[in-house]
Amino acid sequence: MRGKLKLVGMAGLVMTCLLVVGVAAASQRASAPDTLLYAGASDPTYLDPALVSDGESFRVTKQIFEGLVDFAPGTTRIVPALATSWKVSKDGRSYTFNLRGGVRFHDGTAFNAAAVCANFNRWYNFSGPFQDASATYYYQSIFAGFRRNEVQGLGRPLYQSCRAAGGLKAVVRLARRNGPFLPSLVLSAFAIQSPTAMRKWGANQATIQNGLFRPTGTYAFRHPTGTGPYMFERWTTGEAVVLRKFSRYWNKRQPRLARIIIRPIADNTARVQALQTGEVYAMDLLAPQFVATVRSNSRLKVLSRPSFNVAYVTINSSRAPTNELNVRKAVAYGLNRQLVVNSFYAGRAQVAHEFMPPSLPGYNANVVKYQFNPTRAKQLLNESSCKVPCKIEFWYPTGVSRPYMPDPKANFEAFRASLEQSGFDVVTKSAPWRPDYVAHVNEGTAGNLNMIGWTGDYADADNFIGTFFQGGSKQFGYNNAALNRLLDRAEAETSQGRRVALYKQANALIMQQLPGVPYAHSRPALGMQKRVQGYFTSPIGTDLFKTVFIGGQ
Predict the structure, then answer these.
(1) 109 phi and psi, to 5 degrees?
(2) Cβ–Cβ contacts within 10 Å for residue 214, how many?
(3) Can you give the pLDDT at residue 541?
(4) In whole angstroms, what is the distance from residue 295 CA to residue 4 CA?
């Protein structure tokens, strides 16, 4: 849907009123200016942050838990959180964290170095169901393996040990140097949880049922216990998660609100309607076509997230004819990226020239750039074995809207037209986002070309180009020895200056070899009432609510 949204009278009101069933008491309290009513897109998966990888879960756990480090509000700059300072050893393998004093978990347990080490050792000692990739995705991504690997494909663990060097000093020892280690600790997956509560409520109990991981203790559903500004009150699936202010929070000036109520509203239109009627005060995932609608309402405002994503077209280098560099270059010249950005992002995106956002250290402004040039594309095709018209298979997803790709079909149709203008004979394929499309993309079976993208998890180039290309990729059909050497060196380097130089070299090589074509960095939008103040948008999408307050009408 494009253009201005219209409410649908009583039918719309009845539909949205159904969302408050079962939370009437909370809604009564929400009329006071000390409660934030917030709309996400779905329920959390679990409330144990070590066991989830989705934004809807992290939206909640970010309020309950804290890590050793965090981002400064609205930025990707690392600042102290539960650690007030840290020092790296000369060999780059030991991190000494000086911890914040006077901090308690919500159950009254003292936060100290022993608690930090208990969490690191918990992750390291995960076994059985917890080694399933869906259970501990982020631990496996950063730390590679466990104390005893029980699943094929796990690597040598990065973590070696943790010791308490006094009550408020924890020393984490790594098996090898690793540049992304510290930046990755901003992830909610590595938040520090109460060892007492985890033991009491069965946090380490789980099973695999019908191929799916599921916790069997009650900790991840009813007893999540951290040091954060808000503590868990209740979760009614399909209705709301309710959090309340932690009165013993270490920062006495925060939080500003007494309660947070987060409601799952899956439909984009319904979320906007709930915002317009005042049933929620703020909403995430405001689609570009609704931005003007929210802005036109005198009671509402639009906020933007910093651009921290990339939309791109995969080019499979293992399949003919895109196994030829000249054909890949012709694709790059044949994609009218500026037209797509101008037409389908409502002024909320810029053309991408590499596979990571410009805000990240390691971005290289001097990479080869490919402006839309049908004449040059045809010339390159005729210099290849494919010739004009060159037949290629191009896939796009259905049934999905992503922050970096709000209207996949519209993007695809524009790209198909520009490629056909540039000498290609495009064979169209589509599939539902889940489970078919993503699986085909990851396995490298989604044609010569396919559209997908990525939102960063933490502020490091490794989380973009390392994730995509290091060690080779089935998705791209691409494994370049020179690029692997650059990415391996950058990952093991702890000097920021040397890491930046290596990633710049890697970006230059990627855009010469063209395993894909990045085309957009978008700025996702949020909608909220103007009286919601003190709200900072996180680049990675996990906003912290402790600074938020409700102002005057």
Answers:
(1) -65, 140
(2) 16
(3) 86
(4) 11
* Cα–Cα distance for residue pair 465/499, rounded to 1 Å: 13
345 in Cβ contact with 525 (< 8 Å): no
pLDDT in tens, 117-138: 999 999 999 999 999 988 998 9
Which amino acid does the sequence have at 127?
Answer: S
Rounded to the nearest 5 percent, the helix, strand and coil shares of the chain are 35, 25, 45
Is the per-residue pLDDT at 194 higher than 90? yes
Which residues have C-beta within 8 Å of that of residue 30, sequence separation ≥ 6?
A: 37, 259, 261
Report which DSSP code applies to 109. P
pLDDT-derived band of residue 54, with 50, 70 and 90 as boundaries?
confident
Q: What is the pTM of this model?
A: 0.83
To the nearest whole percent, how much of the chain has pLDDT over 90? 81
What span, in angstroms and rounded, lies between the C-alpha atoms of 88 and 97?
Answer: 9
For residue 67, the one-letter residue type is G
d(CA 553, CA 541): 27
**Identity (one letter) of the amino acid at 412?**
F
H/E/C letters for each residue in 511-547? HHHCCEEEEEEECCEEEEECCEECCCCCCCCCCCCCC
* 367-416 confidence digits (pLDDT tens): 999 999 999 999 999 999 999 999 999 999 998 878 899 889 999 999 99
Q: Measured between alpha carbons, how far is 120 from 124 in angstroms, rounded to an integer?
A: 6
3-state secondary structure of 456: coil
Q: What is the DSSP letter of 311?
A: E
> How many Å apart are CA 191 and CA 120, to the nearest integer?
10
The structure tokens listed for 272 are: 């906007």
Query: Which residues 6+ apart lie within 8 Å of 80 measured at CB?
Result: 69, 70, 100
For residue 297, the one-letter residue type is: N
What gap in Å lies between CA 198 and CA 48, rounded to an integer? Answer: 9
Could you tell me if 175 and 93 are in contact, meaning their C-beta atoms sit under 8 angstroms apart? Answer: yes
